[in-house]
Design a protein that fits this description.
alpha/beta, Rossmann fold, six-stranded parallel sheet, 9 helices, binds NADP nicotinamide-adenine-dinucleotide phosphate
């Protein structure tokens, strides 16, 4: 999909954990960014989105705005749909008016997790809950617009959370024993790494045809493995933790309103081929970097 080398970018959801890292990166790279958080641009408001696009005249709109409360979505379908599907529809409408490309972030939760080998972009989506359903609706609406890139990602965490890493750090400070599920497998992904991939895509690096792409950090883990690594890596900054034991439990031992895919590892061959300059670190390397940043020891 042809894009300009120094694109003007309109970014939505710039206060979220991914949006804030992407905003910082794009600004550091000297790209022209009009960044909007949920207070300055509500993606469910069609007119606001058009007005913002007409004012900014972007080459690319990057959508990091989303309703991301997976469990609450089971009770708030209308709200989740308004943001994750209606919001995308409004962005497409605005993009058409200024002939901008749209880069949109989606999720591993569009899959049912029944596979045992990494999910391909062509695999059938079959979400298990309302959040995944509404994200899939958003993908489908965007696919009708020719100038789109959809990047599905998984298990996101960043210094500006809230997220799983920060929750585990808080629990480890408070509890002697943590029980964490070990029968859900995925790939943790640092928001800064994903932001780098999105920036490359926005700059038109490589040859990226319109379509769906999968991106996560390298490697796989269960939530239990991830927790063990989080506590081990954070010990040097925040230890000793009250937590002395981390026990693996089955999903059934930690019931949640929304069902989650048991296996959501995604194959990244397509994005690697489209963006040859993309370097994807192992999740543990990125976890270490994120924790250093979180505890103010970046470069440690
Ligand atoms: N978190 C994960 O583990 C994960 C995994 C896979 C994919 N994803 C996808 O990755 C993307 C980024 O997720 P994230 O973790 O950065 O989410 P996040 O931290 O919840 O950020 C989402 C942002 O969207 C904003 N927002 C909500 N409703 C809006 C609206 N109507 N108009 C404009 N902005 C609105 C929120 O605003 P407020 O700050 O006001 O709440 C928030 O800042 C999303 O598309 C998500 O579906 C996330």
């Amino acid at each position: 999909m042809p894009m300009t080398q120094n694109p003007k970018i309109l970014l939505t959801g710039s206060r979220g954990q991914l949006g804030s890292d992407l905003k910082g990166l794009l600004e550091a790279e000297g790209l022209g960014v009009s960044a909007f958080d949920s207070r300055s641009l509500d993606v469910t408001d069609k007119k606001q989105v058009v007005d913002a696009a007409l004012k900014a005249r972007p080459d690319v709109i990057i959508n990091c705005a989303a309703y991301t409360k997976v469990d609450l979505a089971e009770k708030e379908r209308e709200r989740a749909e308004a943001v994750n599907a209606g919001g995308v529809e409004n962005i497409v409408n605005a993009a058409e008016k200024v002939n901008a490309a749209v880069i949109h972030v989606s999720t591993d939760f569009v899959f049912d997790g029944l596979k045992s080998t990494p999910y391909l972009e062509t695999d059938r989506a079959n979400p298990l809950g309302v959040y995944g359903e509404t994200k899939l609706q958003g993908e489908e609406l965007l696919r009708r617009y020719p100038r789109h890139i959809i990047v599905r990602t998984s298990w996101l965490y960043g210094a500006s959370g809230p997220n799983f890493v920060k929750t585990m750090l808080r629990l480890a400070a408070d509890k002697a024993v943590l029980r964490v599920v070990y029968d859900q497998t995925g790939s943790p992904t640092w928001t800064k790494d994903l932001a780098g991939a999105l920036a490359l895509a926005a700059k038109g690096a490589g040859n990226m045809p319109a379509g769906v792409y999968h991106y996560s950090n390298e490697g796989v883990a269960s939530w239990y493995d991830f927790t063990v690594a989080i506590i081990e890596e954070a010990e040097r900054y925040a230890g000793p933790f009250k937590c002395k034991e981390i026990l693996p439990i089955l999903t059934g031992g930690y019931p949640t309103p929304a069902k989650r895919p048991a296996y959501s590892v995604m194959c990244k061959d397509k994005i690697k081929k489209a963006l040859p300059d993309l370097k994807i670190p192992h999740w543990r390397v990125s976890l270490r970097k994120m924790l250093a940043e979180l505890y103010g020891k970046a470069g440690a």
